[in-house]
């Protein structure tokens, strides 16, 4: 079987693709295997194993059913009895347990968010891996995404085999006893995480936890996002690089110091690596790297000759057998793709003598093999990330990661020595991160690509493999052409909106607030009307959550780099709250408000600091944004009230006329009737469907066919009111509402137009 295990692994991978995308690829798989067998490239045993591999994994791997809309949350408290089956996550801001129900075998996520006080160690002492627990609380079904591009929390949990969750409000609602044998190793990890060396700073301790123990929760979230955007997040995942350092340290300490023979040192590695995999969090990347080293040592001691490709293929199959849900883990996908890519290009690397060019090739291959997966998850690719990796990978490999192991292993050194090394590391590392931020500020030219079809993934990887094979055969000209074609295809997908005759109007589901994004055909312009945010009732400060989780991901998923014009209807946080975060992110070119809009000094200063022009517009004026006219029909006079002073805009988009009404009341609606002969095919219902607006005479005069209502699920205001819904229904107006349909899109082209809802209508 030497040299054939990769075909067995590929058969399992094709089975996984068949399950994930609901394609039955058995016929194609069989034809491929038959061709290899007929051309004498495949013997009978690997042929049979490959067929068995496909059939087994096709039925073994899970298909995640994300539609659980029929399952409703209950207000009744329930009692869950079961076992903690995964390592408890105990952090300052949350505690998470995965409990398997003893009765149903369902996996339930138990979450506790502590209040302002710190959690005492004795409060969590009984939360152990393998403990039997009784949990009191209300069963909830996680909410899924309701907007394009939004992170789907429900799907995320389902891919971890978790279907329900319980949020407890007090740790006394969790009563646990006992533990499993493996708890002591997990406890050791928790001990190392929470009792970092006393003589180093919190800043350095956070990096020790991330790069040695696999917990990046204490690293600044902005740094995590920066690494993700620039394709550097693989550095934060413990993988082959870290395992190589661990193995190198063991061999150096045991062999170079003549403490042990090589054979005995190998036994130490065999015993230590599985323990380190647990201490490092047991993520797929560290499991892959550890398993490859362990398997290599075992096979060598048994004098069984295998290739590196065989080893990674066998490890791939074993991990799939061990955990069938691991196929959905992004770390599993990235780790194996990068390792396969590097192994396939080992001949190319051997032809290059310069370490600089070897690192460049590894960086290039690593980026190319994960690029489609990266686009699928993040909709973003930084072309310059290959060059940045060229600088950052050696820096982390040679300096940062060894330093982190040093801090953990030599924490017994004197305070002055550790403090000196801490100052050295902090000074250098802080400036390197500043350099990455500088690159992000001045060389940030990302490609946004999303909604890639499955056929693209297949064609991309086929072209990539062919190009790599051509490089291996030293047919560099043909390989170069292949890489150029790949680049052109990606660029073509990124540029697709600029060649599309279709435009869209999207009402985003941001809860109890408004956010509309208008995309003109051929990407001639992107206009936004309102950008609401959630906020705290105690201090009335807006939260960045809506922007970071809904607006920004939507923009990325649509390939939108910036908003040409942002109209703010009035000064309520559910309509303007995300503005400050958009300004800070540099995605707003110009802001429009009414003559009577009252700006907070802080927000006004932010506009000036970021040089974002502010335009005040009056009733009767028409503003042309990239060829799209908007006419202001209200406010006529200053009503001394934010809602009544709402900016009301009339425009024609596609084949329909639109009226965006902000939060006006009936009085303003009747004023519009009096001063303007407005007819609007589509109306944005004012004030989320409050009974203070939507006068029947006004709606009748508009002759609208469709109504958009942006409203939060189960909101405390009772919006939209029964009276408004009945009025719309009596007038025969079709209703689209975010609490029921999620984001709603109007898609229009040269000859056609239609509405789509993100959730089933």
Q: What are the segments in which pLDDT stays under 50 over at least 5 consecutive residues?
A: none
For the record, give the distance between the C-alpha atoms at the N and C termini, rounded to a whole number: 54 Å
- The helix count comes to 27
Rg over C-alpha atoms, rounded to the nearest angstrom: 29 Å
**What's the β-strand tally?**
25
By secondary-structure content and strand pairing, the structural class works out as alpha/beta
Pfam family, one: DUF4131
Subcellular location: Cell membrane
Protein name: DNA internalization-related competence protein ComEC/Rec2
GO biological process, one term: establishment of competence for transformation
3D structure, described in words:
One of its GO terms (biological process) is establishment of competence for transformation. Keywords: Cell membrane, Membrane, Transmembrane, Transmembrane helix. The chain crosses the membrane at residues 7-38, 44-62, 235-255, 267-297, 304-320, 326-344, 356-375, 387-410, 417-436, 448-471, 480-499. It is a multi-pass membrane protein. The chain is of the alpha/beta class and 761 residues long. The chain contains 27 helices and 25 strands. The protein folds into five domains: 5-60, no CATH class; 78-183, Beta Barrel (OB fold (Dihydrolipoamide Acetyltransferase, E2P)); 189-339 and 382-447, no CATH class; 345-381 and 451-499, no CATH class; 500-757, Metallo-beta-lactamase, Chain A. Strands 1, 2, 3, 4, 5, 6, 7 and 8 form an eight-stranded mixed beta sheet that branches. The chain has an eight-stranded mixed beta sheet with strand order 16-15-14-13-12-11-24-25. Helix 20 (545-557) links the parallel strand 13 and strand 14. The protein is globular. The model has no long low-confidence stretch (mean pLDDT 88).
């Amino acid at each position: 079987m030497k040299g054939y295990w990769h075909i067995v692994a590929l058969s399992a991978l094709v089975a996984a693709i068949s399950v994930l995308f609901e394609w039955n690829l058995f016929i194609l798989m069989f034809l491929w295997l038959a061709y290899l067998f007929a051309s004498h490239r495949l013997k009978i045993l690997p042929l049979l194993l490959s067929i068995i591999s496909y059939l087994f994994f096709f039925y073994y791997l899970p298909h995640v059913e994300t539609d659980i809309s029929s399952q409703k949350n209950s207000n009744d408290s329930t009692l869950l009895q079961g076992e903690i089956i995964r390592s408890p996550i105990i952090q300052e801001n949350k505690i998470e347990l995965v409990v398997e129900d003893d009765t149903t075998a369902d996996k339930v996520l138990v979450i506790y968010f502590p209040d302002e006080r710190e959690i005492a160690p004795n409060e969590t002492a009984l939360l152990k891996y393998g403990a039997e627990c009784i949990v009191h609380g209300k069963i909830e079904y996680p909410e899924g995404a309701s907007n394009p591009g939004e992170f789907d929390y429900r799907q995320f949990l389902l891919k971890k085999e978790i279907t329900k969750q319980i949020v407890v409000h007090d740790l006394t609602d969790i009563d646990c006893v006992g533990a499993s044998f493996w708890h002591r190793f997990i406890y050791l990890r928790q001990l190392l995480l929470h009792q970092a060396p006393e003589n180093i700073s919190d800043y350095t301790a956070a990096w020790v936890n991330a790069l040695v123990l696999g917990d990046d929760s204490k690293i600044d979230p902005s740094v995590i996002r920066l690494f993700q955007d620039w394709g550097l997040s693989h550095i934060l995942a413990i993988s082959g690089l870290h395992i190589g350092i661990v193995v190198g340290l063991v061999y150096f300490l045991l062999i170079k110091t003549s403490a042990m023979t090589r054979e005995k040192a190998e036994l130490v590695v065999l015993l230590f690596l599985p323990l380190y995999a647990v201490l490092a969090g047991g993520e797929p990347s560290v499991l892959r790297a550890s398993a490859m080293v362990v398997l290599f040592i075992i096979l060598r001691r048994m004098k069984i000759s295998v290739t590196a490709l065989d080893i990674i293929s066998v490890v791939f199959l074993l991990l799939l057998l061990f955990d069938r849900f691991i196929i959905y883990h992004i770390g599993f996908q990235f780790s194996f793709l990068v390792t396969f890519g590097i192994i396939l290009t080992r001949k190319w690397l051997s032809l290059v003598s310069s370490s600089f060019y070897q690192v460049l090739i590894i960086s290039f291959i690593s980026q190319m093999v994960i690029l489609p997966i990266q686009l699928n998850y993040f909709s973003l690719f930084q072309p310059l990330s290959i060059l940045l990796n060229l600088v950052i990978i050696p820096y982390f490999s040679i300096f940062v990661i060894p330093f982190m192991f040093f801090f953990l292993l030599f924490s017994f050194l004197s305070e002055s020595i550790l403090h000196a090394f801490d100052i050295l590391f902090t000074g250098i590392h802080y400036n390197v991160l500043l350099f990455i931020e500088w690159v992000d500020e001045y060389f940030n030219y990302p490609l946004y690509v999303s909604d890639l079809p499955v056929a693209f993934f297949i064609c991309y990887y086929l072209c990539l493999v062919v190009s790599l094979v051509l490089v291996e055969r030293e047919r560099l000209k043909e390989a170069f052409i292949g890489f150029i074609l790949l680049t052109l295809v990606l660029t073509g997908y990124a540029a697709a909106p600029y060649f599309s005759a279709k435009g869209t109007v999207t009402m985003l589901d941001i809860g109890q607030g408004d956010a509309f994004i208008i995309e003109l055909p051929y990407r001639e312009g992107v206009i936004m009307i309102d950008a609401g945010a959630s906020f705290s009732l105690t201090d009335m400060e807006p939260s960045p959550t809506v922007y970071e989780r809904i607006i920004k991901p939507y923009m990325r998923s649509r390939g939108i780099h910036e908003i040409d014009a942002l109209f703010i209807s009035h000064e309520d946080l559910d309509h303007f709250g995300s503005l400050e975060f958009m300004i800070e992110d540099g995605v707003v070119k110009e802001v429009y408000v009414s003559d009577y809009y009252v700006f907070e000094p802080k927000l006004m200063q932010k506009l000036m600091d970021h040089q974002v022009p502010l335009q005040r517009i009056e009733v009767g004026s028409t503003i042309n944004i990239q060829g799209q006219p908007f006419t202001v029909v209200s406010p006529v006079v200053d009503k001394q009230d934010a809602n009544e002073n709402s900016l009301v805009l009339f425009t024609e988009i596609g084949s329909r006329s639109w009226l965006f009404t902000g939060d006006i009341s009936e009085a303003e609606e009747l004023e519009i009737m009096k001063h303007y002969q407005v007819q609007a095919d589509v109306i944005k219902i004012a004030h989320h469907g409050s009974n203070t607006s939507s006068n029947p005479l006004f709606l009748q005069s508009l002759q609208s066919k469709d109504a958009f209502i942006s409203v939060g699920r189960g909101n405390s205001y009772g919006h939209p009111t029964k009276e408004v819904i009945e009025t719309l229904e009596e007038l025969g107006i079709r209703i689209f509402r975010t609490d029921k349909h999620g984001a709603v899109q109007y898609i229009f082209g040269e000859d056609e137009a239609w509405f789509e809802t993100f959730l089933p209508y």
